[in-house]
Amino acid sequence: MSTQANSSAADIRAILDKQRAAFLAVEPYSAAQRIELIDRAIGLLVDHADEIVDAVAADFGHRSKDFTRVTEVLSPLNTLKQTKAQLTEWMQPEQRHTERGEAWLQYQPLGVIGILSPWNFPVNLAFGGLAGALAAGNRVMIKPSEFTPQTSELMARMIRSVFSEDEVAVVTGGPEVGQAFCSQPFDHLLFTGATSIGKHVMRAAAENLVPVTLELGGKSPTIISRSADLKAAVTKIITGKMHNAGQICLAPDYVFVPEELLEEFIATAKTVLGSYFPTLKDNPDFTSVINARHFQRLQGYLSEAREAGVELIELNPAGEDFSDQAHHKIAPTLLRNPGDELKVMQDEIFGPLLPIKPYHTIQQVVAYINAHPRPLGLYYFGNDAAEEQFVLTRTTSGGVTINEVIKHVTVESLPFGGVGPSGMGAYHGKDGFKTFSHAKAVYRPIDGPDLMRPPYVEQVRQIVSSLISR
């Protein structure tokens, strides 16, 4: 039932009820039991590495197999291993200060965690959430994206081979299954995906007062300071943007460039791109857009910008013709200073298109960023400590990487999450453990005068009066 493509709400609820009953029937998992569960997940990634790479490539039409091996196998594997190494420490009660007696937080599992994972990193983001949920001692249900059907079915088979349905289960299917999934009374729901879909997920979860962690996206700005090493900055920006053909929630969405360095930025971008991808169309390292729908969406951005008179600078070293191809590849394209009224400057791009915006002062840059929805990531390139601090303190984003892009997400000890339209809540590392746990407050008082219990004799009044002071 956990792998049927047409699972009904009743089917999904049956799995949830089975997991909740199993959770309540036994003592909370010990550290050793949680480690054993994590070890099973580790084994799945190691034993099925080649199948994962092939399934993801098939779902994308074409995706770099080397990139997939790093992001869909090695990355979640490292997450699971780090989680395993630290979870015993995380499980310890956390002492809190009190003047009288003893106070502490006791972390206990919530119960059943629902995970809605996206198509752009289908294994990575499913197993990343799984790591935190298992570390916290929960049962888990996963609904992967219908846009990656082969990978989703593979994950369902993998999970079923080592986990019982009352431990971890995968539910596959289309949007109607996703709607039914996020309408269930989970103890916590983790969703990774578009902001527009996140609103529907939160609305459905609210019917059962299910707490949610929403990992959304938005338009992550990149700032190149006049103090930056321009070539190094452009190299890192183009490299990050080309990961997964820009289909990353943290991809640099647009770049602020000092106005006098704009031409040098463009020339450097062409050189950098050409050194990585001398050809594109049949290059095994250059990833395809996921499907026809997103291909047409990106082409629509380009058409609208072209009609508005925006200069489009195609980074196509071999001058290849993409009109006849087996996949949905798009040549990386810079857009010179597109207007804010264009969709490419309103929507999260999620593709190999990169608007570049000239600026005069850093104050103008910060004002622009603050006039728009708060992004998931922000990137600053420069060596001016005062300017860096100005950007950090005067902008709000989910996270920041300095003199690089995206990489703060790879640090397991940092919480990963958005703010406002780019998400709510966070996970990864200990923060993920806490997200999927209930921090129960426990207090053991010692005997002494009870200032709130009548009769309020003079001695009590004197004690109260002595305590009311500056």
UniProtKB/TrEMBL annotation:
Keywords: NAD, Oxidoreductase. It holds the Pfam family Aldedh. CDD domains: ALDH_CALDH_CalB. The active site is at residue 215. The keyword NAD applies. Residues 4-442 form the Aldehyde dehydrogenase domain. Belongs to the aldehyde dehydrogenase family. This is Aldehyde dehydrogenase.
